[in-house]
Structures are given as C-alpha cells and as structure tokens.
Specification:
It is a single chain. The chain is α/β, with parallel strands linked by helices. Helices cover 40% and strands 20% of the residues. It has eight helices and seven strands; from the N terminus they run H-H-H-E-H-E-H-E-H-E-H-E-H-E-E. A seven-stranded mixed beta sheet has the order 3-2-1-4-5-7-6, with helices on both faces. A hairpin with a 5-residue loop joins strand 6 and strand 7. Helix 2 packs antiparallel against helix 5 and helix 3 runs parallel beside helix 4. The longest helix has 15 residues. The protein is globular, with a radius of gyration of 17 Å. The N and C termini lie far apart (41 Å). The relative contact order is 0.13.
Length: 217
C-alpha cells in the first residue's frame, strides 16, 4: 500500500496551479461573507475537467462568490455558458463582480437565485456537460438524481466536500451532513451507469461520468 502523502506534499499539490489576483479577490470576498470556497486544487481539477470535455454548458449548484465558477469558465469553450444557482442573491452579486473583473462576458455566466431543488427541475434534460454541486450537503443525493437527468451521455457530475473534513471516512461520525455525503458516495459507486473516482484534493472531489445507455437513447 502506498504511504499517504505528508502535509508538505499535499500543500505543494494544492498550490501547483497558482491562483491569480482575480481568484484571490473572489476568495477574499468569500471569506468576508462566510462562504467556504473550493480549494485551489479542486478548482484546478474543475478547470481541467471542463477543458478535457470541451464543455459548452455547465450547471453549478452553489455560486458562492464565484471562485469555482471562475475555474470552470476558464476551462470551458470560449462560447460556453455557466448556469449557476444559489439561494443567496448577495453572493451572486459578488460572483458577478468576480466574473466582470476576470473579463468574462455577462452572457457566459447565467446566475439564477433560488433553491437548487426548485431550479434544477426547470433546466433542460440531457443538455449539460458538467453538473458541479457545492450546495446543501443534505441534498446531495437529490442533486445526483437531477444531474443524471441533466447530463448528456459522457457528461460528468462533480461534488465538492466529498470527504467532509475527514468525517466521511470515520464511521463514528453520524451527523446529518456526513451521513448524506457518505450515502452519496455509496450510491455513486454502485450505480451501473456511472464511472466514479474520488480525488483527495481539497476537501475531496467526487466525480462520476455518465455512461451512454443505448436503451435510453
């Protein structure tokens, strides 16, 4: 078995892709309003994923102040559109400020204020390349079911905080959020139409590719 990496190596890998001033400012805004933004390692992984998929349409649950949105937009096609959902309109205002500072045209970032489980059912089936979830952890299972409908075959669903501050791997932890994330991991791993991977970046990034099912085409 491979020896776990030490803290210095973990920090080195997290900082491997450096953040610029725009991301640093967006992260500072997150700290000011009490939002826990995705780490730089997870953000870099999202940008890489969006680039590999040549993503044109992405859904994000949990806009925050735009940190994860910036990473996603930088990996997407030049004509790609991010649809980002958050219940906090003020957070979305700050996110739009971050996008403007990054020089991203307003038509490329569609912000929708509202509860995710009210908004997601109104989005188009099979249209999206990526669904990224960083909202209410207790709703992760419901987000997965919506993502399976929203994703095109070959699209990817991603969940931040998949390790949830080291609680998911500790069976003694039975709080509602930890249990929900733990059950999500089991559901994703057992799903016949998903190809999953759990990356130990940041607080854990769970990814799963939606396979093409000819019976549903």
């Amino acid at each position: 078995m491979t020896t776990p990496i030490n803290a210095a190596s973990w920090s080195h890998s997290e900082a491997y892709v450096a953040e610029d001033d725009v991301l640093t400012s967006a992260r500072a805004r997150a700290d000011e309003v009490g939002v826990s933004a995705i780490g730089s390692g997870g953000g870099a992984a999202l940008r890489f994923l969006a680039s590999v998929l040549d993503a044109r349409a992405v859904v994000e649950v949990g806009t925050g102040t735009g940190v994860s949105g910036l990473w996603l937009l930088r990996g997407m096609r030049a004509d790609g559109v991010l649809t980002t959902v958050d219940i906090e309109a003020e957070h979305q205002r700050l996110a739009r400020q971050s996008f403007t500072e990054a020089g991203i045209p307003s038509q490329r970032a569609r912000t929708i204020s509202g509860a995710a489980l009210d908004v997601l059912p109104r989005l188009t089936d099979g249209h999206y390349d990526i669904v990224f979830c960083d909202g209410d952890k207790r709703e992760y299972g419901a987000y997965l079911r919506e993502a399976l409908r929203l994703l095109r075959p070959g699209g990817v669903v991603a969940f931040d905080n998949a390790l949830w501050h080291d609680r998911v791997a500790d069976p003694a932890r039975r709080d509602e959020e930890t249990v929900a994330i733990r059950e999500l991991g089991r559901e994703v791993a057992a799903h016949d139409e998903l190809v999953p991977v759990l990356l130990p970046v940041g607080d854990g990034l769970l990814l799963a590719k939606k396979e093409w099912n000819p019976e549903r085409s």
